[in-house]
Design brief:
This protein is mostly helical. Helix content is about 50%, strand content about 5%. Helix 1 packs across helix 2 and helix 2 crosses helix 3.
Amino acid sequence: MSFNREYSVNKTLTKDTVHKKLSGVCGGIAKHYNVPRIAVRAGAIVALLMFPVATGVAYLVATLLMPSKISKY
């Protein structure tokens, strides 16, 4: 039994260096999940106000581990 993967999209999570404010993490997440960048940034701010240490550590880890890729638009 063979499996044809022609229809699958190879989509990776990368930082968006074109539309970045700090490091491009929120822009990369928004592009990967196809949601508005402002919604992801607003969610990050709300999370930062509610859980400042956890959100700060998660953002720092994401900044260090997510690869950078320049957007084409």
